[in-house]
Every structure is written in C-alpha cells, then in structure tokens.
Amino acid sequence: MSSTHLIDDSPLTKYHKRLIAACSGGPFLDGFLLSIIGVALTGANSDLALDPASIGIAGAVSLVGLFVGSLVFGPVTDRIGRRVMYTADLLVMIIASVACLWIDAGWQLIALRFIVGLAVGADYPIATSLLTEWMPKKYRGAMIGLLSVVWLLGAVVAYLVGFAFTSALGAGSWRWMLASGAVFGVIVMLLRMGAHESPRWLITKGRTEEARKDISSVLGREVTTEEITDMVAQEEPQRPARFTNLLRGMNLRRILFCGLTWMCFAIPQFALFTYGPIILSHLGFGDDTAGATLGQIILNLGFLLGSFPGMKWVESRGRRPLILGSFLFGALALVPLGIWPDAPGWFVMAFFFLFAVINGAGNILVFIYPNELFPTQLRASAVGLATAVSRIGAAIGTYLVPVSLSGLGTGPTMLIGAGLTALGFVISLFWAEETRNRNLASAAQSPAEGHKTSPSQAKATGTVAL
C-alpha cells in the first residue's frame, strides 16, 4: 500500500470527526470572545465613562493582541508541537474571561481584551494546522472551511447571549457577558482531551515511531515500517526550514496574498461584529439597543448562512472562483448603502444581509489558503504570519470605524468598506491559486511545479505527498 493512503486518501474515521469538533471549539470561542464586546461596550461605556477614543481602543485592542499572539505563537507551535499549545491557549482565554467580572476601570477592560486577543491569535495556527495535517484530502477544504463557519456560529451565539443578558438584566450586565466565554472555554477544553499530535510534525522532528502508533490508532490497523519509511521520505525537508524563509520569494507573495485578502474580508466583517448595533442605529434601524442588537443577530445569521454553500463550492468549483466572486459581489452589495445612507430600514437590512451572505461564503477561505500553501515545517508559522498581516489592517480599520462614522458619515464609511472589498478582488485576480484536489506537498510547491508533475509521475519519482 502506498503511504499516500495513510492520511491523504484515508477514510473519515471517528477520530477525524472528534478532531473536527475539538479544533472547531477554538474558532467558536474566537468568534464568541471577539464579538461579545460589540454588545458589552454599550453598558461598559456607561459604567466606565469611556470616551470615543477609549471605545475604539476597547473594540480594536483584541485585534492587536491577536496580531501579537499569531505572530509569536505560530513559530512556537512549529517548534514545540501542536498538541502542547492546543490547551495552553484555552486556559488563558478562560482566565481572562473570568477576570472580566472584576473590571472597574477602562484600562482593565482594554488590558483583558488584549490578553483575550493574544490567546485567540495563538489558537489560529494551532487548531488549523493540526486539523489540516490529519484530514484526508477529499474532505480537507470543506473541513478547514468549517472552522470559519464555527467562528461565525460563535459570533451569532455571542449576540444571542448579549441580547439575552441585555433583555433580562439590562446593559449593566456587560461584565457577565464578557465572563460567559469561560463556560464555553471549559467545554472546549474537555473536547480537546486525548488528542494526538500531528504525525506530519512528529516525522519532521524524527519521532517516527510515535507517528506510526498514532496513525495506527486512528486508522484502526497496524501501519507498517515500510509505510512510515515512505512517509518520512516525503515529509523530510529538502533544506532547513526557517521562519525567514517566509519572507522571501514565492513564500512572501503567498503570505501577502493570504494576509491582505484576509484583511479585506475581516475589516468589514469585524466592523459589523464590533460596531454592528452602532452602525445600524446610524442607518436608522432599531429605535433602541435591543432592536439594533436584534438586527445584528440577523446579520450574523447571514454570515453563517452564506458559509454553507461556500463549503460546497470550495470543493466543487474551486478556491479561486469562490474568492473572486465573493469579493466582487460583496463590494457591489455595499455600494447602495453608501449611495443612500438615509434609506428605509428594510433597504438597509436587505443589502447588509446580502453582503453578509456573500462575505460568509468567501470567508471560509481565510483558513484554507494559508494551511494549504505552505509545508509542514512552516505551516503554523505561515498561518500566524498571515493572521498578523491581516490584523494590522483589521485593527486599524476597526479602530477608525467610530471615527469615520462621526467624522465622515455613514455613507462614505460604507463606500470605504466597498473599496476595501474591491481591493481584495484585485489582489485575488493576480495572486489567487487553485489548490482544490491537490495534496499538501503539491499545493506547497510553486504553481508551475504543481502542474508539471502528474500524480502518476510523482508516485514514480517518490514525490507523492500524504
């Protein structure tokens, strides 16, 4: 049996399904923790007497933490392994969430939101790399895309929780809203118990016997020494892999592509998640906080709804058509809101909902591309660096949203969002690659190399990947 069948062509086992649930827990928490602040800021603003600048910092500081966390802990994950970091970041999320119960000053809110962002940034390269390196090729794109879906689900649940707290206890319950993330954190921690280390990572570290035992356990059969020997030959790097390799040539272009397109998806999305009720109020939807929050829940459901056909299209139509279509039609959906900011509430919700559906479909690619375009030795580092690039712009953009709303007005702010989305289309037009139905090693090659070598030729020359 070719070693190709060990992972890339294996069936979807019970362990794979359990790993999908466990890895999805991180993005769920990420979506929840980064979105709950959108509802909590209303009460925090009143109790802590925050000025507009402090509100902007409180909304954006998690993205700064996410930038630092992803940039620092991506390389750490490549160095010490996926499984060690798999639970450490969850502990930080849980502790920081519980600590929100004792906030009594604006700087404390900002500090804890930074720590939450730090843990979220660490989880992106950890969970996505581990899942990518275990998943069969047939299901890889959809299952990595599922992490984005679960992120959106976490955001929806955050607003539902916020709406429930606001309706039952009023805006003053914001501390409990922020602390509620700890409950979900404990659940995810339990799901992650008993996970195996990535066999690809183990092999690159020379721990082949551990990899053989773990794969045997997952596949339910004894993996032979010959299969592992073939696997070692395929995974062993041809040259030392260093973080600086990501800053040169094709790798740098791919990092910029992943980071910049992620940024173009994230800025309008984070603006809606963080300041959705405020934006909807400016556009005349909702006469009170609860009404605007309900409108935000509807928009979040739109992001979630769009991701499901995206998961289908990413395998049936491919990565490149999906990203191009999402950016193009997403930009067109925001233009009417910029041209007619005083439109009736139904018009506002209709086009915002349309944008949310379109953005949700393409957003599943933000985890897929950086995990498929880089080799095992640099995968977590690449995901971390791409995340960091995306969050530089996202943090600045999110901070400037309230400034733009008050200084430029709602219409120009919507047109800026349309322009950013159109920028994503232009970047993708030149740089987006097609990685559908390609194994991980082939996808990490240059496009020319990947297309030159057929599967049969690769098998004959020993370059077929897992």
TrEMBL record:
<dbReference type="InterPro" id="IPR005829">
    <property type="entry name" value="Sugar_transporter_CS"/>
</dbReference>
<dbReference type="InterPro" id="IPR005828">
    <property type="entry name" value="MFS_sugar_transport-like"/>
</dbReference>
<feature type="transmembrane region" description="Helical">
    <location>
        <begin position="20"/>
        <end position="41"/>
    </location>
</feature>
<feature type="transmembrane region" description="Helical">
    <location>
        <begin position="413"/>
        <end position="432"/>
    </location>
</feature>
<feature type="transmembrane region" description="Helical">
    <location>
        <begin position="322"/>
        <end position="340"/>
    </location>
</feature>
<keyword id="KW-0812">Transmembrane</keyword>
<feature type="transmembrane region" description="Helical">
    <location>
        <begin position="381"/>
        <end position="401"/>
    </location>
</feature>
<dbReference type="InterPro" id="IPR036259">
    <property type="entry name" value="MFS_trans_sf"/>
</dbReference>
<keyword id="KW-1133">Transmembrane helix</keyword>
<protein>
    <submittedName>
        <fullName>MFS transporter</fullName>
    </submittedName>
</protein>
<feature type="transmembrane region" description="Helical">
    <location>
        <begin position="346"/>
        <end position="369"/>
    </location>
</feature>
<feature type="transmembrane region" description="Helical">
    <location>
        <begin position="144"/>
        <end position="168"/>
    </location>
</feature>
<dbReference type="InterPro" id="IPR020846">
    <property type="entry name" value="MFS_dom"/>
</dbReference>
<feature type="domain" description="Major facilitator superfamily (MFS) profile">
    <location>
        <begin position="19"/>
        <end position="436"/>
    </location>
</feature>
<keyword id="KW-0472">Membrane</keyword>
<feature type="transmembrane region" description="Helical">
    <location>
        <begin position="174"/>
        <end position="195"/>
    </location>
</feature>
<dbReference type="Pfam" id="PF00083">
    <property type="entry name" value="Sugar_tr"/>
</dbReference>
<feature type="transmembrane region" description="Helical">
    <location>
        <begin position="110"/>
        <end position="132"/>
    </location>
</feature>
<feature type="transmembrane region" description="Helical">
    <location>
        <begin position="255"/>
        <end position="278"/>
    </location>
</feature>
<feature type="transmembrane region" description="Helical">
    <location>
        <begin position="53"/>
        <end position="74"/>
    </location>
</feature>
<feature type="transmembrane region" description="Helical">
    <location>
        <begin position="290"/>
        <end position="310"/>
    </location>
</feature>
<feature type="region of interest" description="Disordered">
    <location>
        <begin position="441"/>
        <end position="466"/>
    </location>
</feature>
<feature type="transmembrane region" description="Helical">
    <location>
        <begin position="86"/>
        <end position="104"/>
    </location>
</feature>
